[in-house]
Amino acid sequence: MPKSVRISLANKCQILFGAAVVLILAAALSVAWIRMQALVRQEQHENARNLANAWLSDMIQLGGALMTFEELSSRKDIDQGLTLTLIRRDEFDLAASNDEFIAHAIEQFEMRQKAHEYARPIQAGQGIHYYRYARAIRRSDLAKIRGGAEAGFSAGLDMPIINDPLEMVLLIRIRSDLAQRQLVLNRIYIIVAGLFASLLAIGVFYYITKRIILSPLRVLRDTAEQVAAGDLNIRSDINTGDEFERLSVVFNQMLENLKSNEDQLRGVNKSLDLKLGELAETNVALFEADKLKGEFLANVSHELRTPLNSIVGFAEVLEDSLKEADDDQARKHHRYAHNIIRSSRDLLDLINDLLDIAKIEAGKMEVRSEAMSLTDTGEGLINLIRPQADKKEIDLLLKIPATIPLITTDVGKFQQIIFNFLSNAVKFTPSGGMITLEATTLPPNHIRISVIDTGPGIAKELQTRIFDKFIQLDSTVTREYAGTGLGLTISKELASLLCGEIELDSEVGKGSAFSLLIPIDMATDPNI
To answer: Does residue 347 contact residue 308 with C-beta atoms inside 8 Å?
Structure first.
């Protein structure tokens, strides 16, 4: 229902109660109305019947010998609107043709022998009302009037009367203006009483609904509206001693609980605001510390690489000078120089990884894209990793189709990612295994470069952890494979810089496949 035509509860109660009262009173008064009219008709009928019986009784007491039928038929008593008329059988046709009431009465009397009465109220016009009554006088009635036989036998005959034909009709017309006036007056009294009772009942119902039902509801409604507006300090005050008062008490208890919860929430929010401020300050301090850490790592790593490169250079010179020596002391010094070179290179790799991580986190890692032949780059990487693979007797296989097009990317970062995959594959593949470097094109404009090994594989639950910083599958001090755990982390970040992603497909005991998925032309990749 549209809001413009909504009806309030008060109006609904008043309309429904008022309509119910009117309908109930109308039904009750209609019964009195109909019964009053029936009583007036019944009284007029009884008066006419008594008058007819009295007239017949007088005729029977006279015995019929004192008055001839002609005298009876010509007798008319007129007294204050009362008219008696006797119609003989030979006058039926004439009387029926002139008076419709007489015609209906004669028809009823002749059709049914047991019919003795016929009556109907008639309005003569100009406010004049009559009540007409017709009484059938049959042959048995004439026998009583003559006194020659008892009822049911004809005069002078010794056989019973089988047919009791109609001989005369006694017409009585009574002026009923007074009865009509009383009927109209009674109707007026009924209407006035009904209107007064309706108004009184509506007024009583209005007072009851307003004071007992609507007034508490309006208090609750006003209170609820103010609560909806945000005022939780208001309380409803209803003292009716019924369900409304109980509802008011429950409503006030609910407001108390809401107020208490609001105060608690305010305190919690205030405490959270303080904690949030502290966290913001802590985050700022952590950001500054992380920035200082990145700058420190970048500076320290840069400063450490120069002396380490010098150490590696001098150690290599010393190793070359002692390579041809024959005495034990010289061979011992040669072994020492080799250890210095190996340890220095491991330390240099660690510093390079830390420097790359610091640059990536500081957002200072630059990307320089250029055209690159994937076939040439793959052969170069295979040749670079071959010495390490030969030491473990691992076969290397290059599967790059000649139809692979040139790609545009950062060559250095691409080589660093793939070489990291190859180094890990050589590190974890047992002797006699195989490592495959292959490339495939993917529609519409991507290439997947995969390094597939026959190593031990990686469990599903550990495949997401290996890309975290400083994470290795064997984190114990005596782990078999050395490393810092930064290689895959750096590779993942570099792949993101190249607008690509790293995929891993591995099962325990079935080897691993690390893949780099990058666009053919990084500058036109829609994801950039």
So the answer is: yes
Q: Could you read off the pLDDT of 209-218 as tens digits, one per residue? A: 777 777 777 7
SS3 content of the chain, % helix, strand, coil (to 5): 60, 15, 25
Mean pLDDT of 263-288: 85
Residue pLDDT, tens place only, 374-428? 888 989 999 988 988 898 899 999 998 888 888 898 888 888 889 888 988 998 8
Rounded to 5 degrees, φ, ψ at 86 are: -115, 125
Q: Whole-angstrom Cα distance, residue 24 to residue 18?
A: 10
In whole angstroms, what is the distance from residue 104 CA to residue 110 CA? 10
Cα–Cα distance between 68 and 23 in angstroms, integer?
Answer: 61
Quote the CA–CA distance of 427 and 389 in Å, as a whole number.
9
pTM to 2 decimal places: 0.43
> Alpha-carbon distance 288 to 231, whole Å?
46
Task: Name the DSSP class of 348.
Answer: H
Q: In the chain, how long is the greatest CA-to-CA distance?
A: 194
Please report where in the chains the tokens 């109930």 appear, as a residue: 24
Label residue 125 left, alpha or beta by phi (over 0 means left) and psi (-120 to 50 means alpha). Answer: left
DSSP helix/strand/coil, 307:
helix
Q: For the chain, give the mean pLDDT.
A: 76
Q: Which two tokens stand for residue 394?
A: 């691992």
Tell how strand 501-506 and strand 512-519 pair up: antiparallel
Q: Do residues 140 and 151 lie in contact, with contact meaning Cβ atoms separated by under 8 Å?
A: yes
More confident residue, 469 or 97: 97
HSE-CB for 230 with a 13 A CA cutoff = 0
Adjacent-strand bridge partners of 441: 447
Do the beta carbons of residue 423 and residue 385 sit within 8 Å? yes
Here the tokens at position 141 are 């009635």
SS3 of 62-83: the string is HCCCCCCHHHHHHCCCEECCEE
Which tens digit of pLDDT belongs to each residue from 222-252? 888 887 887 777 787 777 777 777 887 887 8
Asked if pLDDT for residue 63 goes beyond 70, the answer is no
Are residues 118 and 109 in contact, defined by beta-carbon separation less than 8 angstroms?
A: yes
Helices (H), 124-214: 139-146, 177-208
Query: What is the number of residues in the chain?
Result: 528
**The pLDDT of residue 434:** 92
Between 243-321 and 215-228, two packed helices, what is the crossing angle to 10 degrees?
Answer: 20
For residue 441, give the nearest of 471, 401, 473, 472 by alpha carbon: 401
